Amino acid sequence: MKLEHFGYNNNIEKLRIQHNLLDFGIGRVISEHKERYMVKTENGEFEAEITGNLRYTANSREDFPAVGDWVAISEYDDHKVLIHAILPRKTILKRQAVGKKGENQIIATNIDFAFIVQAVDRDFNINRIERYLTICNVSNVQPIIILNKIDLISETALSDLISEVQERVKHVPLMAISNTSQKGIKTVKGYIVQGKTYCLLGSSGVGKSSLLNNLSGKQLMKTNTISTSTNKGRHVTTHRELIVLENGGIIIDNPGIREVGISDSVGGLEKTFGEIVELSKNCKFKDCTHTIEMDCAVLAAVESGKVDKLFYENYLKMKREKEHFESTVAQKRKKDKNFGKMVKQFKNLRKSNKY
Ligand SMILES: Nc1nc2c(ncn2[C@@H]2O[C@H](COP(=O)(O)OP(=O)(O)OP(=O)(O)O)[C@@H](O)[C@H]2O)c(=O)[nH]1
Ligand SMILES: [Zn+2]
Question: Where do the annotations place GTP binding (predicted)?
C-alpha cells in the first residue's frame, strides 16, 4: 500500500524536509498500547518502540507518539522499527487525563474531520452535540453531525429534530441516516475524501460501529473477542485503530476516542458559542458574566429571543466548567512549582552544609 493511501501528502513531505528527516523511513502510528506501537509503512505493519533519545527529551505525554502520528523510523530487527521523531501534528484530539487533573492526554492526531454521531431516540440531546463540537473546535478538527437511527422515528418527528438542531448549531454539516435501512449512508460516503482522516465521536450505543461497518462494507468491529493464540480466554480487542476505506478515506477508531466525552469539552467554547462571544463585545462591562449585569448584550438577546435560551444556558454551564478546569490546572502548576522550589532549596542547603 502506498503512503498516500493512509494519508501521506505534500505537507507531510515538506515537514520531513524541514526537519531533516528524509534519511529515515516514514510511517503512521496505527495503534498504541503502553508505549508499544504499531506503525504502518509502505512495506507493511511493524511493531515499534521509541529511541532512548526521544524518551529522555520528552517533557510530557504529548511528546510521545500517538495514533495518527507520522513518525521517522528505522528498521532494527525483523519486522520491528525504532521511532526517532514525530512529525509536527496538524491536529490533536486531547482529553483530560484520568486521575491527573489538569493534564492533557492525546487521543489521536492528524484527524481532519469528526463525525459527531447521535441517535435520534434516547440519546438525542443538543447540549451534548455542542459539547462534542467544542471538543472538535479545541482540537482543530472539522465537525460533521450525523443523526442516526432515523428508522425509529416518523418523518415529521425527524424534520422537527433537524430544525431544532439547525436552530442552535449553525454552519456545521448535518446528515440524517439509518444503519438499518441504509438511508443516508451514501451521503456520508460522499463526504469522505481520499487521503483525509476521520473519526467517530458519540456516546456508547449510538451506532458508531454499525456505521463504520457500513462505510467499510466489512464487519470490522469485533470487540472482546477471545484471544485464540494465547487461548487463555483473555479479552483482547482485535480491531485495527486506523482503517483505510475503499474510497480512500481513513478512519481512526481507538478506545480513547470512544471514551471522549462530556468532561473533555472545556476548551474551544468561543467557537462553538461564537454568537455569544460576538454579542458580548457590546456588553457594558468588559468582565461581564452575562448573568446579572446591567446593559448586558447577551441577556438582552436572550430576552428578545434572538439567542436561544437553552443555547445560552448550555454556554454558561460549559463556561463554569472551563473556569473550574482552568483553576485546577493553575493549582496544579502552583503545587508543582512549590515542589520544584522545595527541591532547589533542599539542594542548596545540602551544598552549603556539604553533606
Ligand atoms: N434501529 C436502529 N438500530 C441501530 C442503528 N444503528 C445501530 N443500531 C443498533 O444500535 C446498537 C448499538 O450500535 P453500535 O454500532 O454497537 O453502537 P456504538 O456507538 O458503536 O457503541 P459502542 O461500541 O458502545 O461505542 C446495536 O444494537 C445496533 O444494531 C440504526 O440505524 N437503527
Ligand atoms: Zn454580558
Answer: 148-151, 202-210
Judge if pTM exceeds 0.90. Answer: no
- Answer for the pair 119, 205: CB distance below 8 angstroms, yes or no: yes
CA distance 284 to 74: 60
Cβ-Cβ contacts under 8 Å for 74 (sequence gap 6 or more): 24, 25, 81, 82, 84
- pLDDT score recorded for residue 179: 96
Residue 7 structural domain: 3-86
**Contact indicator for 38, 45 with CB cutoff of 8 Å:** yes
208 lines ligand 1 (CB under 6 A): yes
Instruction: Kindly report the length of the chain.
Output: 355
On whether both 184 and 307 belong to a single domain, the answer is no
Provide the H-helix boundaries in the chain: 10-18, 52-57, 126-139, 155-168, 185-191, 208-216, 255-259, 269-272, 274-280, 297-303, 309-353
Between 329 and 267, the more confident residue is 329
Residue of the CA atom closest to atom 12 of ligand 1: 205
Could you tell me if the CB of 118 is within 6 A of ligand 1?
no
Beta-sheet pairing, 142-148 with 174-176: parallel
Ligand 1 atom nearest residue 223's Cα: 23
| Ligand 1 atom closest to 181 (CA) | 31
Question: In the chain, what percentage of residues exceed pLDDT 70?
Answer: 87
Using the predicted structure, report yes or no on whether residue 57 has a pLDDT greater than 70. Answer: yes
Q: What does the pLDDT look like over 239-248, one tens digit per residue?
A: 568 888 888 8
Mean pLDDT rounded to a whole number for the chain: 85
CA nearest neighbour of 220 among 192, 244, 187? 244
Look at residue 253 and tell me if it is in a domain. Answer: yes
Q: Are 52 and 61 in contact (CB under 8 A)?
A: no
Residues 231 and 136 in one domain: yes
**Residue 27 CB coordination number (10 Å):** 27
Cβ–Cβ under 8 Å, residues 27 and 46: yes
Q: Is the CB of 256 under 6 A from ligand 1?
A: no
